[in-house]
Amino acid sequence: MFINNFDPVALEIFSLEIRWYSLAYIMGILIGWFLAKKFLIGKNIYTRFDDYITYVIIGLILGGRIGYVLFYNLGFYINNPLDVFKLWQGGMSFHGGVLGIIIASILFAKKNNDDVYEYLDVIALVAPIGIFFGRLANFINSELYGYETNLPWGVKFVQVDDLYRHPTQLYEAFFEGFVLFFVLLFFRKKERFKIAGILSSLFLIFYSIFRFIIEYFRVPDEQLGYLILNATMGQIISFIFFVAGILLFFSKINVQKKT
Question: How much is the pLDDT for 115?
């Protein structure tokens, strides 16, 4: 069993703290950006992708923060509205970030008369890289941890308590990051799935399945607990995203059959 007592601050330069979570965002964006450009060589949107990334970053940050405020802690922020802007205190929603990226992509695609799914598909393909680094940062920060376990890979989060718990952050890093990346790469190579929008739909489907299952091992958000049918907020939103992914997948397949 492992004892987690990591310092969430990676570097401290004078009074400036650089946290692992910030580095995770930076690494995820830079590596994802680099790979996305590789995947887009020869595509029409290649020359506009660098400009598009600015939209993605803004959508990710705004969507992630607004999503957390609305989905996970609305009561607190209604009473403390100025705290919405204190990003350094944490509080980002993955699902909110996805919605922010979708909105930003729609705006950018309309501006350039492009198919929005050309952008969303490549983002879906590289997003697991960012998820991987983000979940590792969650692990270092001793947040989003799981229930108590006697399994040999249980982790004691010293900053939380003396119990050995499921390292659900690592479960998510592995399945939502590593596994999902290679699943999408596999489908990308299949000729029948080379339709704009298919990769986006598969991302929503597989991410939602992984997230929904892992949430059973994860302690729910303290301020929310369990909600409808004893599901967590993460499971509820993941189910909605799963349905959206299924609908998108079959709508794209049907369009291909008609043509």
Answer: 94
Q: What are the pLDDT digits (tens) for 113-171?
A: 999 999 999 999 999 999 999 999 999 999 999 999 999 999 999 999 999 999 999 99
Q: Please tell me the distance from the alpha carbon of residue 75 to that of residue 61, in angstroms, as a whole number.
A: 21
Q: What is the reported pLDDT for 258?
A: 62
CB atoms closer than 10 angstroms to residue 215: 20
Using the 8-state DSSP alphabet, how is residue 160 labeled? T
Both tokens of 38, joined, read 């590789």
Tokens encoding 135: 């979940």
Distance CA 223, CA 76 (A): 9
Q: Which residues of 223-252 are buried (b: 16+ CB within 10 A; e: fewer)?
A: eeeeeeeebbbbbbbbeebbeebeebbeeb
Residues 6+ apart with CB under 8 A from 133: 24, 25, 27, 28, 31, 177
**Residue 223 within any structural domain of the chain:** no
If one counts the domains in the chain, the total is: 1
Answer yes or no: is 78 within a domain. Answer: yes
Domain membership of residue 230 (yes or no) is no
pTM for this one?
0.93
Residue 43: the pLDDT is: 87
- Amino acid of residue 147: Y
Residue 117 lies in domain: 2-200
